[in-house]
Design a protein that fits this description.
This protein is of the alpha+beta class. Helices cover 45% and strands 19% of the residues. It is built from 12 helices and 16 strands. Strands 2-6-7-1-5-4-3 form a 7-stranded antiparallel sheet. Strands 10-9-8-11-14 form a 5-stranded mixed sheet, with helices on both faces. Strands 12-13 form a two-stranded antiparallel ribbon. Strand 15 and strand 16 form a beta hairpin. Helix 1 crosses helix 4 and helix 7 (240-274) crosses helix 10.
Length: 422
Protein backbone atom coordinates (compact mmCIF):
# COMPACT_ATOMS: atom_id res chain seq x y z
CA UNK A 1 0.00 0.00 0.00
CA UNK A 2 1.27 3.49 -0.88
CA UNK A 3 0.79 6.35 1.58
CA UNK A 4 1.96 9.95 1.88
CA UNK A 5 3.14 11.69 5.06
CA UNK A 6 3.19 15.47 5.34
CA UNK A 7 5.31 17.22 7.99
CA UNK A 8 5.94 20.86 8.78
CA UNK A 9 9.49 22.11 8.26
CA UNK A 10 11.22 24.46 10.72
CA UNK A 11 13.92 26.15 8.62
CA UNK A 12 16.14 28.93 9.89
CA UNK A 13 16.01 32.34 8.20
CA UNK A 14 19.01 31.46 6.05
CA UNK A 15 17.55 28.06 5.13
CA UNK A 16 14.19 29.65 4.25
CA UNK A 17 15.99 32.04 1.91
CA UNK A 18 17.83 29.09 0.33
CA UNK A 19 14.53 27.25 -0.13
CA UNK A 20 13.07 30.27 -1.91
CA UNK A 21 16.12 30.40 -4.17
CA UNK A 22 15.71 26.69 -4.93
CA UNK A 23 12.10 27.24 -6.02
CA UNK A 24 13.09 30.28 -8.11
CA UNK A 25 15.85 28.37 -9.92
CA UNK A 26 13.61 25.39 -10.65
CA UNK A 27 10.93 27.80 -11.86
CA UNK A 28 13.48 29.41 -14.22
CA UNK A 29 14.41 25.96 -15.53
CA UNK A 30 10.74 25.13 -16.12
CA UNK A 31 10.09 28.40 -17.95
CA UNK A 32 13.26 28.06 -20.03
CA UNK A 33 12.29 24.55 -21.14
CA UNK A 34 8.79 25.77 -21.97
CA UNK A 35 10.21 28.66 -24.02
CA UNK A 36 12.40 26.23 -25.96
CA UNK A 37 9.37 24.13 -26.86
CA UNK A 38 7.36 27.18 -27.89
CA UNK A 39 10.16 28.50 -30.12
CA UNK A 40 10.62 25.10 -31.75
CA UNK A 41 6.91 24.90 -32.52
CA UNK A 42 6.76 28.42 -33.97
CA UNK A 43 9.87 28.33 -36.14
CA UNK A 44 9.88 24.75 -37.39
CA UNK A 45 7.05 22.29 -37.72
CA UNK A 46 9.51 19.40 -38.04
CA UNK A 47 11.47 20.06 -34.86
CA UNK A 48 10.25 17.98 -31.94
CA UNK A 49 11.43 18.80 -28.41
CA UNK A 50 11.05 15.94 -25.96
CA UNK A 51 11.91 15.33 -22.35
CA UNK A 52 14.88 13.16 -23.33
CA UNK A 53 16.46 15.95 -25.38
CA UNK A 54 15.95 18.58 -22.69
CA UNK A 55 17.21 16.26 -19.96
CA UNK A 56 20.40 15.67 -21.97
CA UNK A 57 21.06 19.43 -21.91
CA UNK A 58 21.03 19.61 -18.11
CA UNK A 59 24.75 18.81 -17.82
CA UNK A 60 25.66 21.77 -20.03
CA UNK A 61 23.16 24.06 -18.27
CA UNK A 62 24.61 23.21 -14.86
CA UNK A 63 28.15 23.85 -16.12
CA UNK A 64 27.15 27.17 -17.72
CA UNK A 65 25.33 28.46 -14.60
CA UNK A 66 26.90 26.78 -11.54
CA UNK A 67 25.68 29.47 -9.12
CA UNK A 68 21.96 28.97 -9.86
CA UNK A 69 21.50 25.59 -11.53
CA UNK A 70 24.66 23.73 -10.63
CA UNK A 71 24.19 23.64 -6.88
CA UNK A 72 20.82 21.82 -6.88
CA UNK A 73 20.10 18.14 -7.28
CA UNK A 74 20.31 16.80 -10.82
CA UNK A 75 17.41 14.38 -10.25
CA UNK A 76 15.16 17.16 -8.91
CA UNK A 77 15.80 19.17 -12.07
CA UNK A 78 14.89 16.12 -14.13
CA UNK A 79 11.65 15.89 -12.15
CA UNK A 80 10.90 19.52 -13.04
CA UNK A 81 11.39 18.75 -16.73
CA UNK A 82 9.13 15.70 -16.40
CA UNK A 83 6.52 17.98 -14.85
CA UNK A 84 6.60 20.12 -17.99
CA UNK A 85 6.43 17.00 -20.16
CA UNK A 86 3.30 15.85 -18.33
CA UNK A 87 1.73 19.27 -18.90
CA UNK A 88 2.30 18.94 -22.65
CA UNK A 89 1.02 15.34 -22.66
CA UNK A 90 -2.17 16.52 -20.97
CA UNK A 91 -2.46 19.38 -23.48
CA UNK A 92 -2.25 17.03 -26.47
CA UNK A 93 -4.68 14.60 -24.83
CA UNK A 94 -7.25 17.38 -24.40
CA UNK A 95 -6.75 18.45 -28.01
CA UNK A 96 -7.35 14.88 -29.15
CA UNK A 97 -10.49 14.56 -27.01
CA UNK A 98 -11.91 17.83 -28.30
CA UNK A 99 -12.01 19.60 -24.92
CA UNK A 100 -10.51 22.97 -24.00
CA UNK A 101 -6.76 22.48 -24.68
CA UNK A 102 -5.18 24.80 -22.13
CA UNK A 103 -1.66 25.31 -23.49
CA UNK A 104 1.01 25.11 -20.74
CA UNK A 105 1.79 28.54 -19.32
CA UNK A 106 4.85 30.13 -17.78
CA UNK A 107 5.04 29.94 -14.01
CA UNK A 108 5.20 33.14 -12.01
CA UNK A 109 7.20 33.66 -8.84
CA UNK A 110 4.23 32.80 -6.66
CA UNK A 111 2.92 29.88 -8.71
CA UNK A 112 5.82 27.44 -8.49
CA UNK A 113 5.79 26.01 -4.98
CA UNK A 114 6.96 22.39 -5.29
CA UNK A 115 10.26 20.64 -5.90
CA UNK A 116 10.28 16.85 -6.18
CA UNK A 117 13.20 14.55 -5.36
CA UNK A 118 12.39 11.27 -7.13
CA UNK A 119 14.49 9.05 -4.87
CA UNK A 120 15.30 9.20 -1.19
CA UNK A 121 19.03 9.73 -0.84
CA UNK A 122 19.49 11.38 -4.25
CA UNK A 123 19.68 15.11 -3.50
CA UNK A 124 17.45 14.76 -0.44
CA UNK A 125 17.71 12.29 2.43
CA UNK A 126 15.09 11.49 5.05
CA UNK A 127 16.65 10.11 8.21
CA UNK A 128 14.53 10.22 11.34
CA UNK A 129 13.50 8.48 14.53
CA UNK A 130 9.77 8.38 15.42
CA UNK A 131 8.73 11.29 17.67
CA UNK A 132 12.32 12.54 17.83
CA UNK A 133 12.44 16.36 18.26
CA UNK A 134 15.78 16.37 16.45
CA UNK A 135 14.39 14.93 13.21
CA UNK A 136 16.10 16.38 10.16
CA UNK A 137 15.79 16.21 6.39
CA UNK A 138 18.92 16.91 4.39
CA UNK A 139 18.54 18.81 1.10
CA UNK A 140 21.42 19.34 -1.30
CA UNK A 141 22.52 22.97 -1.34
CA UNK A 142 20.62 23.83 1.87
CA UNK A 143 21.64 21.42 4.61
CA UNK A 144 19.79 19.73 7.46
CA UNK A 145 16.35 21.24 8.19
CA UNK A 146 14.37 20.52 11.34
CA UNK A 147 11.10 18.63 10.85
CA UNK A 148 8.05 18.60 13.09
CA UNK A 149 7.42 14.86 12.82
CA UNK A 150 4.12 14.31 14.61
CA UNK A 151 3.73 10.61 13.75
CA UNK A 152 6.00 7.72 12.77
CA UNK A 153 6.72 7.00 9.11
CA UNK A 154 5.92 3.45 8.02
CA UNK A 155 7.00 1.69 4.88
CA UNK A 156 9.80 2.53 2.49
CA UNK A 157 10.33 6.18 1.51
CA UNK A 158 10.34 6.47 -2.28
CA UNK A 159 10.05 10.18 -3.13
CA UNK A 160 10.53 13.36 -1.12
CA UNK A 161 8.73 16.58 -2.01
CA UNK A 162 9.43 20.04 -0.60
CA UNK A 163 6.36 22.26 -0.75
CA UNK A 164 5.61 25.89 0.11
CA UNK A 165 2.14 26.90 1.31
CA UNK A 166 2.00 30.60 2.01
CA UNK A 167 4.76 31.33 4.50
CA UNK A 168 5.03 27.70 5.64
CA UNK A 169 7.25 24.92 4.34
CA UNK A 170 6.36 21.23 4.29
CA UNK A 171 8.02 17.96 3.37
CA UNK A 172 5.84 15.25 1.81
CA UNK A 173 7.06 11.65 1.87
CA UNK A 174 5.62 9.09 -0.54
CA UNK A 175 6.06 5.66 1.03
CA UNK A 176 5.55 2.19 -0.43
CA UNK A 177 4.94 -1.13 1.33
CA UNK A 178 2.96 0.51 4.12
CA UNK A 179 1.28 -2.25 6.16
CA UNK A 180 -2.51 -2.36 6.52
CA UNK A 181 -3.66 -1.83 10.11
CA UNK A 182 -7.04 -3.54 10.13
CA UNK A 183 -9.56 -2.38 12.72
CA UNK A 184 -11.73 -4.81 14.70
CA UNK A 185 -14.84 -5.94 12.88
CA UNK A 186 -17.76 -3.60 13.54
CA UNK A 187 -20.54 -5.77 12.01
CA UNK A 188 -22.20 -2.69 10.54
CA UNK A 189 -22.77 -1.18 7.10
CA UNK A 190 -23.89 2.34 6.25
CA UNK A 191 -24.94 4.40 3.25
CA UNK A 192 -24.25 8.14 3.03
CA UNK A 193 -25.97 10.74 0.88
CA UNK A 194 -23.88 13.85 0.19
CA UNK A 195 -25.67 17.19 0.16
CA UNK A 196 -25.40 20.94 0.59
CA UNK A 197 -27.98 21.66 3.27
CA UNK A 198 -26.40 18.82 5.27
CA UNK A 199 -22.84 17.73 4.67
CA UNK A 200 -24.06 14.15 4.59
CA UNK A 201 -26.99 12.07 5.77
CA UNK A 202 -26.53 8.46 6.84
CA UNK A 203 -28.86 5.52 6.34
CA UNK A 204 -29.35 5.55 10.13
CA UNK A 205 -31.07 8.92 9.79
CA UNK A 206 -28.22 11.02 11.21
CA UNK A 207 -27.57 14.43 9.65
CA UNK A 208 -24.07 15.93 9.77
CA UNK A 209 -24.17 19.71 9.42
CA UNK A 210 -22.44 21.48 6.57
CA UNK A 211 -19.82 23.79 8.16
CA UNK A 212 -19.66 26.16 5.13
CA UNK A 213 -16.16 27.40 5.89
CA UNK A 214 -15.93 29.62 2.80
CA UNK A 215 -19.26 31.26 3.52
CA UNK A 216 -18.18 32.01 7.09
CA UNK A 217 -15.05 33.78 5.86
CA UNK A 218 -16.73 35.60 2.95
CA UNK A 219 -16.73 39.08 4.50
CA UNK A 220 -13.16 38.83 5.80
CA UNK A 221 -11.95 37.48 2.46
CA UNK A 222 -13.80 40.18 0.50
CA UNK A 223 -12.24 42.95 2.62
CA UNK A 224 -8.76 41.49 2.13
CA UNK A 225 -9.27 41.14 -1.62
CA UNK A 226 -10.59 44.70 -1.94
CA UNK A 227 -7.53 45.98 -0.10
CA UNK A 228 -5.26 43.93 -2.39
CA UNK A 229 -7.07 45.30 -5.47
CA UNK A 230 -6.10 48.88 -4.54
CA UNK A 231 -2.47 48.14 -5.50
CA UNK A 232 -1.44 48.17 -9.18
CA UNK A 233 -1.29 44.64 -10.54
CA UNK A 234 1.61 45.02 -12.99
CA UNK A 235 4.60 46.61 -11.33
CA UNK A 236 8.28 45.80 -11.61
CA UNK A 237 8.70 45.66 -7.85
CA UNK A 238 5.93 45.06 -5.37
CA UNK A 239 5.97 47.18 -2.23
CA UNK A 240 6.06 45.84 1.29
CA UNK A 241 2.38 46.71 1.82
CA UNK A 242 1.45 44.98 -1.42
CA UNK A 243 3.19 41.78 -0.33
CA UNK A 244 1.53 41.96 3.09
CA UNK A 245 -1.91 42.32 1.48
CA UNK A 246 -1.24 39.32 -0.77
CA UNK A 247 -0.08 37.25 2.21
CA UNK A 248 -3.28 38.09 4.08
CA UNK A 249 -5.49 36.83 1.22
CA UNK A 250 -3.39 33.69 0.91
CA UNK A 251 -3.57 33.14 4.66
CA UNK A 252 -7.38 33.30 4.69
CA UNK A 253 -7.58 30.77 1.87
CA UNK A 254 -5.08 28.51 3.66
CA UNK A 255 -7.11 28.64 6.88
CA UNK A 256 -10.30 27.72 4.98
CA UNK A 257 -8.49 24.81 3.33
CA UNK A 258 -7.08 23.53 6.63
CA UNK A 259 -10.47 23.70 8.35
CA UNK A 260 -12.12 21.86 5.46
CA UNK A 261 -9.46 19.14 5.56
CA UNK A 262 -9.75 18.80 9.33
CA UNK A 263 -13.53 18.35 9.10
CA UNK A 264 -13.19 15.80 6.29
CA UNK A 265 -10.57 13.77 8.18
CA UNK A 266 -12.58 13.64 11.40
CA UNK A 267 -15.87 12.75 9.66
CA UNK A 268 -14.22 10.02 7.56
CA UNK A 269 -12.44 8.57 10.58
CA UNK A 270 -15.72 8.31 12.51
CA UNK A 271 -17.36 6.44 9.63
CA UNK A 272 -14.41 4.07 9.15
CA UNK A 273 -14.14 3.18 12.83
CA UNK A 274 -17.80 2.31 13.17
CA UNK A 275 -18.61 0.48 9.92
CA UNK A 276 -17.21 -2.38 7.84
CA UNK A 277 -18.91 -1.29 4.61
CA UNK A 278 -19.50 2.33 3.56
CA UNK A 279 -21.53 3.14 0.45
CA UNK A 280 -21.76 6.50 -1.29
CA UNK A 281 -22.88 7.92 -4.61
CA UNK A 282 -20.54 7.95 -7.61
CA UNK A 283 -20.56 11.71 -8.10
CA UNK A 284 -19.46 13.53 -11.25
CA UNK A 285 -18.44 16.73 -9.48
CA UNK A 286 -16.81 18.26 -12.57
CA UNK A 287 -20.04 17.85 -14.50
CA UNK A 288 -22.19 19.10 -11.63
CA UNK A 289 -20.17 22.31 -11.37
CA UNK A 290 -19.92 22.98 -15.11
CA UNK A 291 -20.81 26.51 -16.21
CA UNK A 292 -24.03 26.70 -18.31
CA UNK A 293 -23.51 27.11 -22.04
CA UNK A 294 -24.60 30.46 -23.48
CA UNK A 295 -27.79 30.32 -25.55
CA UNK A 296 -27.89 32.79 -28.48
CA UNK A 297 -31.22 34.42 -29.24
CA UNK A 298 -32.20 33.36 -32.79
CA UNK A 299 -34.26 36.49 -33.30
CA UNK A 300 -31.69 39.01 -32.06
CA UNK A 301 -28.09 38.53 -33.21
CA UNK A 302 -25.55 39.22 -30.48
CA UNK A 303 -28.17 38.76 -27.72
CA UNK A 304 -28.26 35.73 -25.46
CA UNK A 305 -31.23 34.10 -23.77
CA UNK A 306 -31.35 33.80 -19.95
CA UNK A 307 -29.65 30.59 -18.77
CA UNK A 308 -29.61 31.24 -14.98
CA UNK A 309 -25.83 31.44 -14.95
CA UNK A 310 -25.75 33.53 -11.75
CA UNK A 311 -27.88 31.01 -9.85
CA UNK A 312 -25.73 28.14 -11.14
CA UNK A 313 -22.61 30.00 -10.03
CA UNK A 314 -23.98 30.17 -6.48
CA UNK A 315 -24.78 26.44 -6.54
CA UNK A 316 -21.31 25.63 -7.87
CA UNK A 317 -19.74 27.71 -5.12
CA UNK A 318 -21.73 25.85 -2.47
CA UNK A 319 -20.79 22.43 -3.91
CA UNK A 320 -17.10 23.28 -4.06
CA UNK A 321 -17.18 24.79 -0.56
CA UNK A 322 -18.61 21.53 0.80
CA UNK A 323 -15.62 19.60 -0.56
CA UNK A 324 -17.26 16.35 -1.65
CA UNK A 325 -14.27 15.23 -3.70
CA UNK A 326 -11.77 15.85 -0.91
CA UNK A 327 -13.92 14.01 1.61
CA UNK A 328 -14.52 10.95 -0.59
CA UNK A 329 -10.81 10.70 -1.41
CA UNK A 330 -9.88 10.83 2.27
CA UNK A 331 -12.61 8.30 3.09
CA UNK A 332 -11.26 5.85 0.49
CA UNK A 333 -7.69 6.16 1.80
CA UNK A 334 -8.67 5.71 5.43
CA UNK A 335 -10.87 2.72 4.58
CA UNK A 336 -8.02 1.07 2.67
CA UNK A 337 -5.63 1.60 5.59
CA UNK A 338 -8.15 0.09 8.04
CA UNK A 339 -9.20 -2.84 5.85
CA UNK A 340 -12.72 -1.49 5.32
CA UNK A 341 -14.79 -1.57 2.12
CA UNK A 342 -16.02 1.54 0.31
CA UNK A 343 -18.52 1.12 -2.53
CA UNK A 344 -19.56 3.81 -5.02
CA UNK A 345 -23.02 3.19 -6.50
CA UNK A 346 -25.01 4.71 -9.35
CA UNK A 347 -26.71 7.87 -8.03
CA UNK A 348 -29.61 7.86 -10.49
CA UNK A 349 -33.05 8.04 -8.83
CA UNK A 350 -31.70 7.41 -5.34
CA UNK A 351 -33.86 10.27 -4.02
CA UNK A 352 -36.90 9.33 -6.15
CA UNK A 353 -37.13 5.61 -5.35
CA UNK A 354 -39.25 4.44 -2.45
CA UNK A 355 -37.25 2.18 -0.11
CA UNK A 356 -40.49 0.45 0.92
CA UNK A 357 -42.21 -0.52 -2.34
CA UNK A 358 -39.58 0.45 -4.91
CA UNK A 359 -41.83 2.90 -6.79
CA UNK A 360 -39.79 5.40 -8.82
CA UNK A 361 -41.36 8.72 -9.76
CA UNK A 362 -40.43 12.38 -9.90
CA UNK A 363 -43.54 13.19 -7.84
CA UNK A 364 -42.15 11.24 -4.86
CA UNK A 365 -39.75 14.11 -4.12
CA UNK A 366 -42.31 16.64 -2.87
CA UNK A 367 -39.74 19.24 -1.77
CA UNK A 368 -36.00 19.39 -1.36
CA UNK A 369 -36.25 17.79 2.09
CA UNK A 370 -39.53 15.84 2.01
CA UNK A 371 -40.17 12.46 0.39
CA UNK A 372 -43.67 10.98 0.06
CA UNK A 373 -44.22 7.88 -2.05
CA UNK A 374 -47.14 8.32 -4.46
CA UNK A 375 -47.87 4.57 -4.35
CA UNK A 376 -47.56 3.46 -0.70
CA UNK A 377 -47.47 6.92 0.95
CA UNK A 378 -44.19 6.20 2.72
CA UNK A 379 -42.91 9.50 4.18
CA UNK A 380 -39.38 10.37 5.29
CA UNK A 381 -36.60 12.91 4.83
CA UNK A 382 -35.43 12.88 1.22
CA UNK A 383 -31.74 12.65 2.11
CA UNK A 384 -32.46 9.75 4.47
CA UNK A 385 -34.32 7.97 1.66
CA UNK A 386 -31.35 8.53 -0.64
CA UNK A 387 -28.94 7.05 1.91
CA UNK A 388 -31.19 3.99 2.37
CA UNK A 389 -31.31 3.39 -1.39
CA UNK A 390 -27.53 3.82 -1.65
CA UNK A 391 -27.01 1.19 1.05
CA UNK A 392 -29.45 -1.15 -0.71
CA UNK A 393 -27.61 -0.80 -4.02
CA UNK A 394 -24.30 -1.42 -2.27
CA UNK A 395 -25.70 -4.68 -0.87
CA UNK A 396 -26.69 -5.81 -4.36
CA UNK A 397 -23.23 -4.89 -5.66
CA UNK A 398 -21.57 -6.93 -2.90
CA UNK A 399 -23.76 -9.93 -3.68
CA UNK A 400 -22.95 -9.72 -7.39
CA UNK A 401 -19.24 -9.42 -6.65
CA UNK A 402 -19.23 -12.29 -4.17
CA UNK A 403 -21.18 -14.73 -6.36
CA UNK A 404 -18.23 -15.73 -8.64
CA UNK A 405 -15.98 -16.18 -5.61
CA UNK A 406 -18.57 -18.37 -3.91
CA UNK A 407 -18.99 -20.53 -7.01
CA UNK A 408 -15.22 -20.81 -7.37
CA UNK A 409 -14.88 -21.93 -3.75
CA UNK A 410 -17.35 -24.77 -4.21
CA UNK A 411 -16.07 -28.17 -5.22
CA UNK A 412 -17.05 -29.53 -8.66
CA UNK A 413 -19.57 -31.87 -7.05
CA UNK A 414 -21.07 -29.05 -4.96
CA UNK A 415 -21.31 -26.84 -8.06
CA UNK A 416 -23.14 -29.60 -9.90
CA UNK A 417 -25.53 -30.08 -6.98
CA UNK A 418 -26.21 -26.33 -6.80
CA UNK A 419 -27.03 -26.29 -10.52
CA UNK A 420 -29.40 -29.25 -10.07
CA UNK A 421 -31.18 -27.44 -7.22
CA UNK A 422 -31.61 -24.39 -9.43
Amino acid sequence: MIRAYKFLLRPTARQAQALREMLADHCALYNGALQERRDAYRHSSRTSITYGGQSAQLKDIRAFDPERQGRWSFSSQQATLRRLNRAFAAFFRRVKNGTTPGYPRFKGAGHFDTVIFPRDGDGCRWNSTPHDPQTRVRIQGIGHIRVNQHRPVKGRVKTVTVKREGSRWYVVLSCADVPVESLPQADAAIGIDMGITHFLTTSDGEHIANPRFLQEATEELADAQRHLATFPRRTKRRTKKHRAAARKVAGIHARIRRRRLDHAHKTALTLVRGHDVIAHERLNIAGMTRVPVAKPDPEQPGVFLPNQRAAKAGLNRSILDTGWGVFLTILAHKAESAGRTVIAVDPRNTSRSCPGCGHVAKENRVTQARFTCAACHFTAHADHVGALNILSRAGLALCDAAQPAIQEALSPRARAESREEL
